[in-house]
Design a protein that fits this description.
Radius of gyration: 15 Å
CATH class: Mainly Beta
Number of helices: 5
Helix content: 10-25%
Number of strands: 11
Strand content: 25-35%
Order of helices and strands: EEHHHEEEEEHEEEEH
CATH superfamily: q2cbj1_9rhob like domain
Number of domains: 1
CATH topology: Jelly Rolls
CATH architecture: Sandwich
Structural class: alpha+beta
Mean pLDDT: 91
Shape: globular
């Protein structure tokens, strides 16, 4: 999106579903869907695209980054499997809710940055929040997240070429 850099290793939902029964089962678990819906303040449902339902994003080399973007679906539940312990090592989420454009992420005073550790998770309104992951600062650190994408019964389907290129 807007030529923002993507330097990472990815696995799409179709690959994950072929290799794991546990991850797809967790993704569609009624208790998890209920928890995400309560946190979101509205009901959430599975996305129709098997590639984007659950993906792994892995940053494992110095300079790896997931550039500025918004997601195709309203909600992303991001689960940290690995993360740098020190915020100085990068891999931070930089985000701006209700962004008018991706350029706002770099210039708006309301943009925020968050550090996470392995075992952390967050829920993001990902279709209207511009977000990126800052580059890893050095060798020997990793950031691996499992991202569950959810939609709502009233959301209008949307897809970008970006997701197909990253995860197909």
């Amino acid at each position: 999106m807007d030529h923002s850099p993507r330097h990472m290793t990815t696995l799409g939902g179709q690959v994950i579903a072929a290799a794991s029964e546990a991850i797809p089962a967790l993704y569609r678990d009624p208790a998890l869907l209920g928890l995400v819906g309560r946190a979101a303040g509205e009901p959430v449902i599975e996305v129709g695209d098997p590639v984007e339902r659950h993906v792994l994003n892995i940053l494992h080399r110095a300079g790896d980054t997931h550039g500025a973007h918004t997601d195709d679906h309203p909600y992303a539940l991001v689960l940290f499997l690995e993360a740098p312990d020190d915020p100085a090592d990068g891999g931070l989420v930089h985000f701006l809710p209700h962004a008018g454009s991706l350029r706002d992420l770099a210039t708006a005073a309301g943009a925020r940055t968050a550090h996470h550790r392995a075992g952390d998770a967050y829920l993001l309104r990902s279709d209207t929040t511009a977000h990126r992951v800052t580059p890893l600062a050095r060798r020997g650190v990793r950031r691996t997240v499992l991202n569950f994408a959810y939609t709502t019964p009233t959301a209008r389907p949307h897809s970008s070429r970006s997701a197909a290129e990253l995860y197909a």
